[in-house]
Design a protein that fits this description.
- A hairpin with a 5-residue loop joins β1 and β2.
- This protein is mainly α and about 290 residues long.
- The strands form two sheets. Strands 1-2 form a two-stranded antiparallel ribbon.
- It has twelve helices and four strands.
- α2 crosses α4, α6 packs across α8 and α6 packs across α9.
- The longest helix is centred in the last third of the chain and has 23 residues.
- Helix content is about 60%, strand content about 5%.
Length: about 290
Amino acid sequence: MATRQSASLAIRQLKRSDLVAQEIKRLITEKNLSPGDRLPRESELQAQFQVSKGTIREALKALEVQGLITISTGPTGGGTIVEVPLDRTLQFMQNYLFFQEVTIDDIYTVRQMLEPELAAGAVPHLTEADFEALERSISCCDPTQSDEDLVTQRREDVNFHDILAAANPNPFLRFSCELINEMIRQLIVFGNRTPQSEHRRFGEANAQIHREIVQAARARDAAAVRALMERHMRDAASSVKRMKGRIQGRLILDADTLRRPRAAPAAPKAAAVKPARQRASRTAKAE
């Protein structure tokens, strides 16, 4: 009885617009709406939920802030379902982690657990276009081949892992690894005193192990890919600590994600490719 009363009190404490936002989420689920589908017009939602226009707009705005919809104005305006962007997800995660003491060791401990399984699981699903993208990534991040500055080369390192993530059919594993990659891009920085020779050494080691991973993946040897990635993650963790990598203790702002440079997009894939693969050309600060 007490539990039911507590739940009822929690519901009453929600604003009306929050309750409407929850009902719109329920509508999205029940109608099995997908990115690109449109919600009913504001007037239809207003009539359906019997609330004011202001309440509907506040509810839609809340869903937009969550990254679930985009809102357009005008006679045919309203809400359109969108895929929640990884940048937005990282912002919510960082709001929580801002008050936790997360270290480089914490991030790489989890990465060493997940990344080998992610790579091994991707092997049967890698296409020739994926292999071409992996090879381009290696060329961009290899100091012996690339004319880009070392920082740009380091930004390319994580793109290699994103390509593997996009090919893995496990959506939760893919999301977890992409989220870690995005944290590495935005939150890990190196001290100004890190010698350029260390960055070069780091880049050469990354490029070499990436080549070995691609070779094993082309042979469809998932066990070898797993073993190579395990070694790669151990070495990367040691290198980042040796280079004085650290977590930036700050919240991620919208402006930060807009300013962050992006790599050139990969070559177009077939129409059947999932949206997750479109994220394979992100940039990074550390491997």
